[in-house]
Specification:
- The protein is α/β, with parallel strands linked by helices.
- Helix content is about 30%, strand content about 15%.
- The chain has one domain.
- The protein has nine helices and nine strands.
- It has a four-stranded parallel β-sheet. A three-stranded parallel β-sheet has the order 7-8-9, with no helix packed on it.
- The chain is globular.
- This is DUF4417 domain-containing protein.
- It comes from Gardnerella vaginalis.
């Protein structure tokens, strides 16, 4: 059996797998790969974390990565091995690679890039991909420090996106950054549909009545019910 650490060593050693973005179009000064707006906006029945998809035989849901990065590290390192698997599902949310406010900006940008690169790769191979949008500190969702809002590069406007609110609303500081980033995203991308993993506060939804918000129960809550 191959040790997962050895198997996934190529994730960093090969420059984050440049073959992933072959023929991609890029956005902004950091050249973030673009996940194209789909021709039809498909709203999944349910979102299930990547590590849990083997727990159900039904394929009527989209696969997401709203979980610890270690749970989907193999997908990041070897995406081509999962193309045919993911085609069986309603869709795929691009990876929610961790972005923390106390991360160096270089790492925040790296994980935004990785999110879009993996999403582009699967989209190129025929998987229905919905971009996951995640921001960190205000350097990622404002132009105070950079000339572009890096968190939103690689995502086309007036389309469908996914955000994860799980754990983002538990204290005042986290909620502030979540709402500030959310407002910036809505201004920048003007999405038609926002999928929400967990809950979206009514006061946010009420500000954007032209956008359809679709909330999904998080996996932890589903397990607790059962």
């Amino acid at each position: 059996m191959v040790d997962s650490g050895v198997r996934n060593a190529g994730l960093l050693s090969d420059g984050c797998n440049p073959e992933l973005v072959k023929d991609a179009e890029f956005d902004g000064i950091f050249e973030i790969p673009i996940i194209k707006k789909p021709k039809n906006l498909i709203i999944p029945n349910k979102l299930v974390p990547f590590s849990k998809i083997g727990k159900t035989d039904r394929k009527t849901f989209a696969v997401c990565e709203y979980e610890n990065d270690t749970e989907f590290s193999d997908l990041l390192a070897h995406p081509n091995e999962y193309v045919e698997i993911l085609k069986q599902y309603e869709g795929f949310i691009s990876p929610d690679c961790s972005i923390y406010r106390d991360m160096p900006l270089s790492l925040q940008i790296t994980n935004i890039y990785r999110n879009r690169a993996i999403g582009y790769c699967f989209q190129k191979h025929g998987v229905y991909v919905i971009p996951c949008v995640r921001w960190g500190d205000d350097r990622t969702y404002t132009t105070k420090f950079l000339p572009e809002k890096i968190a939103f590069l690689g995502v086309e406007r007036h389309s469908i996106v996914s955000v994860g609110s799980y754990g983002q609303l538990k204290n005042r500081v986290n909620r502030y950054y979540f709402e500030a980033g959310m407002d910036s995203m809505m201004e920048e991308l003007e999405p038609e549909v926002v999928l929400v993993y967990s809950k979206m506060p009514d006061e946010i939804k009420e500000k954007y009545l032209k956008t359809q918000f679709v909330e999904y129960e998080d996996w932890t809550s589903i397990v607790r019910k059962n």
